[in-house]
Design goal:
By secondary structure, the chain is mainly alpha-helical. The chain is built from 20 helices and eleven strands. Bound molecules: glutamic acid.
Amino acid sequence: MTVRLRFAPSPTGPLHIGGARTAIYNWAAARAQGGTFLLRIEDTDRERSTAASLQMILEGLRWVGLRWDEGPEAGGEHGPYFQSERLDRYAATAQQLLDAGAAYRCYATPEEVEEGRRALQERGERPMYDRRHRDLTDAQCAEFEAAGRRASLRFRMPLDERVVLPDLCKGDVEVHTAELDDWVMVRADGMPTYNFACVVDDLAMQISHVVRGEEHLMNGVKQMLLYRALSAEPPRFGHIPLILGPSGKKLSKRDAQTNILDYRDRGFPPEALFNYISTLGWGFSGDRDVFSADEMVERFTVEGIGKAGAKFDEQKMMAICGQYVRATPIDELVRRVRPFCEAAGAVPAAAFDAHPDLVANAVACYQERIDIYGELPAKIAWVFTDDLTMDDAAAKNLRKYEAAGAWLAAVADRLEAADLPPSYPDDRGDADRACRLPSSDGSPAAGSTPFANTADLEQVTRQLADELGAKFGHLVHPIRAALTGTNKGPGLFDVMFLLGKQRCLRRLRAHAS
Ligand code: GLU
């Protein structure tokens, strides 16, 4: 069997977490079996479909790392891949079903349909289309036509049959056809409905497996019956459980951001989001929740998707993001955080090109301290400006010790006098100096220079504390506050090392007395 799976979004809004998960599972199932993954745009709802939504969906898919073999922009042998461009195909199949008696014309107005539904309900029966035009004669049809009515096309549902949909995720799903409507296949305006167009296209595009949300389970049954009416083999269906919010109900916008592009804009690592979304209903193996797309493909099966709804857990998502951030080589991490730092004005754009080592060092200091790129600008801004905003904790640390002003003056004098040349190219223009944070044994990494290393800085500061008769643990608080404007962040000597001599002196003296 040729394995072909599709993702078939309607361009009526952005790509959501649930849609992304469906796309990922279809993609992974196709890749796992050496098959084809295609994208089909279900845009028959002309009022709600927009070009902007389509762009957001394509961007969202690309951002999480999905590529499609056939579809918009990729082309392919089974196009067009927009349903709005396939209307002639639906019309041909509709005629075929009409000729075979598997579909019939219904002239009922929406009001009449509603009236019939209400009447059934009042009799205690299932409220649905009351099948009033199921058996119209040609003459009756002609009368309606003459009266100017336009027919919709309805599926002639078997009235009394037990049918079984073999579902890859849910097992056998048994339904009695009495529960199912004579559903509309083509509206009076000639537009096909979802269930009809979907089957025509899945057949034409030779789709072998349909993996989608469980809200489509009953559609699966209707579609299966339509395949039968067309004497065609249905694809294998897999209806995947809902994604749940913290309350146990379907994940909604109130529970979490659901638009994929919002995560991009907040600076989530796309591989991490791909990874986390994949775990919502599928497990890599018992003890691992971090895995690459390639690793997923090696193991993925539709049957392996869980039966219970998966809970969206923001904390877990952040933890996975953090693991990706920590595993990213520093130069790559710099490349990824750059747009966020520049947009926030936290790092001058020129610094990335003029002082790459300083930027790399600064980013390295936060690699363990952020989960997403978007968290970095606010944390890192102090490195690049002497114009610090003191947060409350830092301001308190400056006031806490009576001698703080004198201490800061003494530290500045000592750093100035000590033979610890500047560590990075600041305003003195020594742009060629390489500067990497010292390795953990305190020795400078290859090519690093001045403020020779953090161990020297520590030694000088400890010695000074002794001389001042101050506790070292006390001294560090006002120093950190003066240098960074906060009481959090990297180790104090990493801070000094990053800033280099001139900036350290300026900032210490700004609070010295
Ligand atoms: N356009 C449908 C949706 O977005 C596709 C469902 C399907 O995969 O058949 O829900």
